[in-house]
Amino acid sequence: MRNTAKITTAVLAAGALTLGLSACGSDKDSASDTSGPLVVAATPVPHAEILNYVKDNLAQKEGLDLEVKEFTDYVTPNTATEDGSVGANYFQTEPYLADFNKKNGTHLKSVASVHLEPLGLYSKKADKTGDLKNGATIALPNDTVTEARALQLLASEGLITLKDGAGNSATTADITKNPKNLEFKELEAAQTPRSLNDVDAAVINGNYALEADLKPAKDALVLESAKDNPNVNLLVVKEGQENDPRVKKLAKLLTSPEVKKYIEDNFAGSVLPSF
Questions:
Q1: Gap between the Cα atoms of 255 and 28, Å rounded
Q2: 230 secondary structure, DSSP code
Q3: Which is nearest to 111 in space by CA: 266, 236, 256?
Q4: pTM of the model
Q5: Can you tell me whether residue 223 is helix, strand or coil?
Q6: Contact yes or no for 46/117 (Cβ under 8 A)
Q7: Number of C-beta neighbours around residue 186 at 10 A
């Protein structure tokens, strides 16, 4: 049986650093004691699943004591890593990490690139993008970087046009052409799968799609291409912890042939190894 501590967190605003720090509820700085277990914060699917595979099958042989804590939002894992309540996290992309550090004054750094979860457009009312009606409502993740990714995905399909240079900070204000007069509903990323009954389509992060029993490679109307995609998911620590021997062991295991095979065998193209 997996010894995984689950933490269900309230939805937090990206700037609510103080709340995030207190939400972790840890009396011990797990990052400062390299003799103890390495506590890693992760969202449930696929991150915690991959970590638990490492914990159950690979960690003991490497001499790594690994503890996995599950979180259901994209803020608390970073604030917990910053304040030392956990020693590392595994859930985010480089653009999201850079944006979070900039907005919150945190000092977090990637130590390994592990996998890509293609962002996808899903619908219960349309079988292809051409079926989306005029004035259709599209749910978008509301964090800065993922919303920009979502808009770029829609633009790649010709559903909208974005102004030049919008990049990783694109918002709906950067839409220059909207031939179907699409309307947009911005939601916390974890809520987008639940919105599918209320909107015409939703752009959903790969991990939340999997949690909702969606199969990105099969069910998405449009799916991000893996080619030259900067949005790989990272193992992240607070600056200064990169040389922690426990972190080095985990980084090695997460990019091992065994983990590559586990990802390929268990996620059927919905999660792609990036190494």
A1: 29
A2: -
A3: 236
A4: 0.74
A5: strand
A6: yes
A7: 15
